[in-house]
Specification:
The complex is a heterodimer.
Chain A: H1 5-10, H2 19-26, E1 53-60, E2 63-70, H3 75-82, E3 101-104, E4 107-110, E5 123-125, H4 139-147, H5 156-169, H6 175-181, H7 192-208
Chain B: H1 35-40, E1 55-61, E2 67-73, H2 75-78, E3 83-88, E4 98-99, E5 105-106, E6 126-132, H3 135-144, E7 146-151, H4 158-162, E8 175-177, E9 188-190, E10 214-218, H5 221-226, E11 230-238, E12 251-256, E13 259-264, H6 269-280, E14 287-290, H7 309-318, E15 322-324, H8 328-334, E16 341-349, E17 355-367, H9 374-385, E18 391-399, H10 413-431, H11 435-442, E19 449-454, E20 457-460, H12 466-477, H13 479-483, E21 488-489, E22 492-504, E23 511-516, E24 522-526, H14 535-547, E25 554-558, H15 576-603, E26 610-613, E27 616-619, E28 625-627, H16 628-638, H17 653-662, E29 667-672, E30 682-694, E31 700-710, H18 717-736, E32 742-743, E33 748-749, E34 770-773, H19 791-808, H20 820-829
Parallel strand pairs in B: 1-15, 13-14, 17-18, 24-25, 31-34
Antiparallel strand pairs in B: 1-6, 2-7, 3-6, 4-5, 8-9, 8-18, 10-18, 11-16, 12-13, 12-15, 16-17, 19-20, 21-22, 22-30, 23-24, 23-29, 26-27, 27-28, 30-31, 32-33
Classes of the chains: A alpha+beta, B alpha+beta.
């Protein structure tokens, strides 16, 4: 269902979402015997606009994308399961680890904790959109390549986008400053020393670019 | 956070050091084949896959620590629109018996964990799974399921179950008894109870020491204690900690033409294939396992996890693909945890600090399923790292109704360092000798012995240069200079810590497999998983070096068993770098041999008259030969052993299958590592830390850290540095705050998310820690490389503990982790204020 300008402004949907459905959708499970706590996903194949969903337009990686979203839907869910941008990872789904970090208007944010309908008319950048259209890697991506930064890589997208966001605002950080800048991201491989080496190298490359 | 490093810091940066002298590839940094996919988001982990018509399933986990399920009411749940099936324990196949590497049948243990259960053994034990069109329907259905539980007795604390009349975690026992070597069958569960007299010292904070199933000794213990200038008797508790891989163990499965295709993260691609077949009770040839990227594995995903077969079974039942996503909380429950150990050591020291006698007793909490022997393993490392002249170890592994345990990086090794290093520090202070001296005098050297006497002799290490690592590390850390600085400034007190650490670092008997294609490329088939250590690629640098080929013409196939991967080691206990570089070297040697044979068959003469260099095989001294591309084509013409119609007769059946799958693709070469060795491989570390404690608040910071290793040949410096400092930080987490906490009344874990049990962040550690390694080749492996990931964990933990004792005294804590509350309360009271023995506080 196309959105109206009023709906776009207020975020109202044409169908009511009950509190129960919201809770089911966002925090899930929670019953005495259910430990299901991920947000809930629907099959990409079976999925179709269902009651409570509405068609909105998003600006993701420089492209305008039309997508049906539920009111309680998080940006991470939309990116991963409706747009196929699986470079955005879910490590905790509760703003604890930062693996889902994306740039929203160039500011790093946890996409697991941002409702999709709130980012209409804002610019969303995921790891898939960081390189130039010609495929040239962003200096921070290239720096990670050069320094063999990170280990398992599951936290990598979030770290890189956090660093890019921080470096855009603080182009010449010291090592401790940059560490603070990406301290909202967890690496369970605990490879922080090498990550910081790579990100500092990225800062230098950005400065030279 | 302190920005501790200054331009004046004299320690050489890793980039300033040169490793791999005389080598083209070994010891040099390079870009691994997976990096581009990772930095661009194209790397696909299990949850990133989709399949046509895919359903989703969700788990229902036990809310109670122990119960028997009388009945499950699923009628209302099945009526929820979109719900397709419910899987219970009754649908789970009985696991098949397996065979070990020697072909011996290993009976499936009756206590073994299964994917779903009718007798949940811990809060979080999976009971059933619901499959539906989407997860909303799964959640709706789960709310409508009613389960009749018959509550059963339970116990959390390993010491409580050992008390006279103490509760057993299950009806048939509470302690694991490991039958005697050699070839031990699976451990057996038995009931073990100690006496009231055994518990007499409990209230004084000393570990009770009753009868145990596992013990060994060597030397004259009584004489050692009799001659000792100092005897210390210390009890210490190491924490249980969740593995907390950042990627939860999501799995997706589908069937095609009778074959199962299964995606999930693992630490060991090839070895997980056989586990899937065993759990599904189906032929291994009918399983395809895909795991190109694994989001962390620290022992908890050694062969992925038992729950991975749930979507496979649902998919089989429903005829469509099924994805089982695992949430962070679910991962906490089913994602495995490190075994906590209570240890008591009585150590007799000579006046120079030499350990004359050591009596060690440990109780390991195995959790709810598989037996874990961290305490027992720790004894081996104690005997190796500190070379006591006489030693006895006694150990017991206890089952409890807590999360299932699985060895986390450096099981036993971490316990060894955590128990021993604070004692060494205390002894040095009492004996008034230097902290480095007491470690140097006890350090192992060369082919150092370890463990008990077996058939009249003790085991020995392949090599050990730990003393050199200790000395060089101390120099780089400027230990002596730091000891001369003022310790106290206002409310801030600085402390210096040093710790030795070690762990197994190798294995033997695995296979290498490569193809030289008609295009002249060298393709290595890797059964190693890609979990971030880079060994999946690094080990083949050895083969490329041996063949003298540039890395640019090498390709690596990994992560998908349908692409014909060879029999490879379990990536556990830091054995991969050693074990698979040996296999890699073996297949390179075999390849050179086959190339020479092909040349002789083509150009005449004897294979010995030919040599391999510059991507060619040619007659020595110049003359006729073939390029690799020509050899690849010629191999196909020759057939037989050359193109994969025949496999090397010594390789594992899994490798033979892989060879058959590659037949006709070029020169297909397989080989088994049969290099001789008579010692056991270990890697060693000397770790140094400086902390600053605010005695007014109890808060402390790690100011600086350095690790110096004896790890054999350095293969890939960047990856090595990542392993050393990453695993050091994992260990520091055990010192600073990581632990499991249970509600003792309900048996419910209360630390089950990152924010309740947070791994260290980038702000918790110095922002420029340092590492280095001796780069001395191991003499009992052709490449000289040993594994490295394990020992820095114990080193990181123990260096912080000894630094804390240096700053605030040894009487402040008797368990890890040590947090600000512990320090503050204990400093005010003048004694440790935490309960010395109670579990999960």
């Amino acid at each position: 269902m196309p959105e109206t300008s009023e709906q776009a402004r207020t975020g109202e949907t044409s169908r009511k979402v009950t509190r129960r459905k919201f809770i089911l959708g966002v925090i899930a499970g929670g019953g005495a015997i259910a430990a299901a706590s991920y947000k809930l996903i629907t099959s990409a194949v079976h999925w179709q606009a269902s009651p409570g969903e509405r068609l909105i337009t998003l600006d993701v990686n420089g492209m305008r994308r039309r997508v049906d979203v539920m009111r309680q839907e998080t940006l991470a869910w939309t990116l991963r399961y409706k747009m196929g941008l699986t470079g955005t990872k879910l490590g905790c789904d509760r703003a604890e680890c930062g693996a889902c970090t994306v740039l929203i208007d160039d500011i790093p944010q946890y996409s697991c904790s941002v409702l999709t309908h709130t980012v209409r008319s804002r610019k969303v950048t995921t790891i898939e959109g960081l390189a130039s259209p010609d495929g040239k890697l962003h200096p921070v991506q290239q720096a990670v390549m050069d320094k063999q930064g990170f280990q398992c890589g599951f936290c990598m997208s979030g770290f890189i986008l956090s660093a890019v966001g921080f470096l855009n605002a603080h182009p010449h950080p010291g090592r401790a400053e940059l560490a603070r800048g990406v301290s909202g991201n967890l690496c369970r491989c605990q490879d922080y020393n090498k990550i910081l080496d790579a990100l500092m190298h990225g800062a230098e490359k950005m400065g030279r670019a | 956070m302190a920005d501790n490093r200054t331009p004046a810091d004299p320690r050489p940066k890793p980039s300033q050091r040169v490793y791999g002298k005389g080598h083209q590839l070994i010891g040099k940094d390079y870009q691994t084949a997976d990096m581009l996919a990772k930095v661009t988001g194209r790397a696909k982990y299990a949850e990133d896959f989709r399949a046509e018509g895919m359903l989703f399933c969700r788990l229902v986990l036990s809310p109670t620590p122990h119960a028997r399920i009388r009945r499950i009411h699923t009628g209302a749940a099945m009526a929820v629109p979109g719900v397709k099936a419910i899987l219970t324990a009754d649908d789970i196949p009985v696991p098949a018996d397996s065979r070990d590497d020697n072909g011996n049948v290993v009976k499936a243990s009756k206590w073994r964990e299964r994917a779903l259960t009718n007798e949940p053994m811990y809060v979080g034990d999976p009971i059933l799974a619901v499959a539906a069109l989407d997860e909303l329907a799964c959640a709706e259905a789960i709310e409508k399921i009613e389960i009749d539980f018959e509550p059963l007795p339970w116990v959390l604390d390993p010491l409580e179950t050992l008390r006279p009349g103490g509760q057993n975690p299950r009806e048939d026992g509470n302690a694991w008894v490991s039958p005697a070597a050699p070839n031990p069958p699976s451990p057996q569960l038995r009931e073990v109870k100690w006496t009231e007299a055994d518990f007499a010292e409990y209230n004084s904070g000393r570990l009770p020491m009753g009868n145990v199933p596992d013990q060994w000794s060597y030397g004259n213990l009584d004489e050692g204690f009799k001659n000792a200038a100092l005897i210390l008797d210390e009890t210490f508790v190491t924490p249980d900690t969740s593995h907390q891989c950042l990627e939860p163990r999501t799995a997706m499965a589908y069937w095609q033409n009778g074959k199962l295709f299964l995606h999930t993260g693992t630490q060991s691609t090839g070895q997980t294939l056989s586990l899937i077949a065993q759990l599904m009770n189906m032929p291994q040839e009918d399983v395809v396992f895909i795991s190109e990227y694994t989001g962390g594995g620290f022992g908890g995903k050694v062969r992925a996890g038992v729950t991975m077969i749930i979507p496979a079974l649902l998919s089989k039942k429903l005829g469509v693909p099924v994805m089982m996503r695992i949430s962070r909380e679910e991962e906490h429950f089913i994602g495995r945890a490190r075994t906590g150990v209570v240890g008591r050591l009585k150590v007799g020291f000579a006046a120079d600090g030499r350990i004359l006698a050591l009596d060690m007793f440990t109780v390991s909490n195995s959790g709810s399923y598989d037996a874990q022997f961290d305490g027992l393993w720790a004894a081996k490392f104690v005997s190796l790292l500190y070379q006591p002249r006489a030693m006895r170890q006694r150990a017991i592994s206890v089952m409890t109704n807590t999360l299932p345990r699985m060895p986390q990086t450096s099981p036993g090794g971490l316990v060894c360092s955590a128990l021993m290093e604070p004692i060494l520090s205390k002894a040095a202070r009492r004996l008034r000798i230097d902290q480095l001296s007491i470690r140097r005098v006890n350090c192992p050297e060369g082919k150092a012995e370890f463990g008990p006497l077996v058939k009249g002799r003790r085991g020995h290490a392949t090599s050990c240069f730990l003393r050199e690592a200790l000395d060089r590390g101390a120099d780089q850390f400027r230990w002596n200079e730091r000891t001369e600085r003022a310790k106290r400034s206002g409310t801030k007190v600085r402390g210096l810590g040093v710790a030795l650490a070690g762990h197994d670092g190798g294995d033997t008997g695995y296979d290498g497999l490569l193809v030289i294609t008609p295009q002249g490329r060298v393709r290595f088939q890797s059964g190693i998983a890609n979990l971030g250590t880079e060994s999946v690629f690094d080990v083949f640098r050895a083969a490329a070096e041996k063949l003298g080929v540039p890395w640019e013409i090498c390709d690596i196939t990994w992560g998908d068993t349908s692409k014909h991967l060879p029999y490879s080691c379990l990536s556990v206990g830091s054995r991969t770098m050693n074990a698979m570089s040996r296999a890699s070297w073996a297949v390179a040697e075999e390849c050179a041999l086959r190339l020479k044979e092909i040349a002789a068959k083509t150009h005449g003469g004897d294979p010995a008259e030919y040599q391999v260099a510059n991507q060619r095989v040619f007659r020595k001294g110049g003359g006729a030969g073939l390029s690799f591309a020509e050899a690849g084509k010629r191999a196909i013409e020759l057939g037989g052993i050359y193109d994969g119609h025949e496999a090397n007769p010594y390789v594992n059946p899994q490798t033979r299958l892989a060879v058959a799958g590659l037949t006709g693709q070029g020169l297909v070469v397989s080989a088994k590592d049969k290099y001789p060795c008579d010692g056991d491989w270990f890697s060693y570390f000397a770790c140094f830390a400086e902390v600053e404690v605010d005695i007014e608040t109890g808060k402390y910071f790690i100011i600086d850290y350095q690790a110096y290793g004896d790890v054999g040949t350095v293969m890939h410096p960047a990856a090595l540095g990542g392993q050393i400092l990453g695993r050091s930080t994992l260990g520091m987490g055990h010192a600073i705050g990581q632990k499991m906490v249970y509600d003792a009344h309900y048996g419910v874990p209360v630390a089950k998310r990152f924010y309740q049990n947070k791994p260290l962040s980038i702000l918790d550690i110095p922002n420029d820690m340092q590492w280095d390694a001796l780069d001395i080749p191991d003499p009992e492996t052709p490449v000289g490389a040993r594994g490295v990931g394990e020992p820095p964990v114990g080193g990181g933990l123990a260096a912080i503990l000894t630094a804390l004792t240096d700053a605030i005294g040894a009487e402040v804590f008797s368990r890890a982790p040590v947090n600000a509350d512990t320090i503050l309360a204990s400093l005010e009271a003048g004694r440790p204020m935490q309960h010395p023995l109670m579990a999960f506080i």
